[in-house]
Amino acid sequence: MASVHSEPLTDRRPGAGAPSGFTALKLLVAGGFGVGKTTLVESVSEIRPLRTEEPLTEASRPVDRLDGVETKTTTTVAMDFGRISLRDDLALYLFGTPGQDRFWFVWDELATGALGAVVLADTRRLADCFAAVDYFESRGIPFVVAVNCFDGVRSHTPEAVSRALDLAPGTPVVLCDARSRESGKDVLITLVEHVARRPV
Ligand SMILES: Nc1nc2c(ncn2[C@@H]2O[C@H](COP(=O)(O)OP(=O)(O)OP(=O)(O)O)[C@@H](O)[C@H]2O)c(=O)[nH]1
Ligand SMILES: [Mg+2]
C-alpha cells in the first residue's frame, strides 16, 4: 500500500507518546438516515465505541422515515466514535455522523481534519445518500460508497450504483454488510487505499 501522509494524532494519555512512524487517520462514516453507520462503526471497532443514541419519539415520526428499518428505535444525535488498527503502525479513528438533516451542523465539526469518508448507502433509498456525496465532493474529501446490503439483498451492482449517483470516475463502490466486522474492515481498507492513491 502506498504511504498515507497525514498529521499523526498523538496519544494524549499522561506518559504516553505516539511511537515514531505511527500513523492515525481520521475517517468519517456518513450517509443518510438509518443506513447502518452506527452499526458499521460498532462492528469494526476494537474499543467499546462511543455512541450518542437517543430514542426516536412519536413526535419525530412524520420527519424520520423508517421505511426499510422499521425496527429502528434510536438515532444518532451527535456522533459515533470507534478505533481499528489495520497494522501495528496504522490505526483508523472512525467518526460516524448523525443521519438526519436537522443535525447537519455537526458534520462540519466532524469533517475537520478528516482524510476520507465512507458514504454508506441503502439501495432501497439510494437518493438519501446524495447529500453526503455532494458534501464530500464539494469539499474535495476522498470517499468510497459502501452499499449496505440489508438482508443480503444485492439489488444493484456497484456499476449501477456508480451511474445512479453520477460518481466521478475512480470513486470506488463496494457492497458490504455493516454488521460484519470483516466486511466493514474491507470497506475501510478500500477507503485507505483510495486515499493513498490520491496525489499529495
Ligand atoms: N438487516 C440488516 N439490518 C441492518 C444492517 N445494518 C444496520 N441494520 C439495522 O438497521 C437499523 C439502522 O442501523 P443504524 O446503525 O442505527 O443506522 P444509522 O445510519 O447509524 O442511523 P442514524 O444514526 O439514525 O442515521 C438498525 O436497526 C440496525 O440493526 C444490515 O446490514 N442488515
Ligand atoms: Mg447512527
Please compute the radius of gyration using only Cα atoms.
Answer: 16 Å
Tell me, what's the shape? globular
H/E order of the elements?
A: EHEEEEHEHEHEH
Helix content: 25-40%
- Low-confidence runs (pLDDT<50, min 5 residues)? 1-8, 10-15
- Terminal Cα span: 15 Å
- The DSSP helix count reads 5
Mean pLDDT: 88
Largest sheet: 6 strands, mixed
Largest sheet: spatial strand order: 4-5-1-6-7-8
Structural class: alpha/beta
Strands, total number: 8
Task: Name the hetero compounds present.
Answer: guanosine-5'-triphosphate, magnesium ion
Instruction: Work out the strand percent.
Output: 15-25%
Please explain how this structure is put together.
With 200 residues, the chain is of the alpha/beta class. Helices cover 25% and strands 23% of the residues. It has five helices and eight strands; from the N terminus they run βαββββαβαβαβα. The chain has a six-stranded mixed sheet, sandwiched between helices. The chain has a two-stranded antiparallel ribbon with strand order 2-3. α3 links the parallel β6 and β7. It starts with 22 loop residues before the first strand and ends with a helix. The N terminus is likely disordered. Magnesium ion binds next to α1.
